[in-house]
Design goal:
This is Transposase (IS4). This protein is of the alpha+beta class. The chain folds into 2 domains: 50 residues, no CATH class; 92 residues, no CATH class. It has 8 helices and 4 strands, in the order E-E-E-E-H-H-H-H-H-H-H-H. The protein has a 4-stranded antiparallel sheet with strand order 1-2-3-4. A hairpin with a 2-residue loop joins strand 1 and strand 2. The protein is elongated and about 85 Å long. The N and C termini lie far apart (90 Å). The model has no long low-confidence stretch (mean pLDDT 83).
């Protein structure tokens, strides 16, 4: 039994297939399995996904590598910038800690997740592009929250925000 190649036209596009004959014991006859080889390009089969990775432009639409969620974060980022919350936190924390705090806050507001799932949410959000490589492992989060809980950071932050808004802190 010989393997045969054939071209099949689907929606006006030619594709190469290989027919593999085999004997069906139940029906007692020869049947064929079809194996996709690729798109017909200059008489040769070229697999579309392989071509997307090379310099050839066979398929005009490429598959996106990663999609990031922007929509739910835009209002939160705008509010943070308008109220200068990032600047106040920058006075109390180093850069990575500040960004970790903001990521946790944005997560709590936009799409609450357990702290051990925070890194997964962060990597699918636009924050990953803005602040790459935040150490959002559960141990780092625990250490940061412990630092906040054992210090006067919350009251200092409240006083800074009150001073800017013109209200008296109690």
């Amino acid at each position: 039994m010989m393997l045969t190649r054939r071209i099949k036209k689907i929606n006006g596009i030619e594709y190469w297939y290989e027919d593999i004959p085999y004997y069906d014991k139940e029906k007692k006859q020869i049947r064929h399995k079809s194996k996709y080889l690729g798109r017909n390009v200059n008489g040769e089969p070229v697999r579309v996904r392989d071509a997307l990775n090379s310099s050839e432009n066979i398929c005009p639409v490429s598959k996106p590598l990663k999609a990031y969620n922007y929509g739910e974060l835009l209002p939160l980022q705008w509010i943070t910038d308008e109220l200068k919350i990032g600047e106040y936190l920058g006075d109390l924390f180093n850069g990575k800690e500040r960004n970790m705090i903001l990521s946790m806050v944005f997560n709590r507001i936009a799409r609450p997740a357990a702290m051990y799932n925070l890194k997964t949410w962060y990597e699918s959000s636009a924050l990953f592009l803005k602040w790459p490589e935040l150490p959002l492992k559960s141990q780092n989060i625990s250490n940061l929250l412990s630092k906040v809980g054992d210090s006067d950071i919350p009251s200092t932050f409240r006083v800074k925000c009150s001073e800017i808004s013109g209200q008296k802190a109690h």
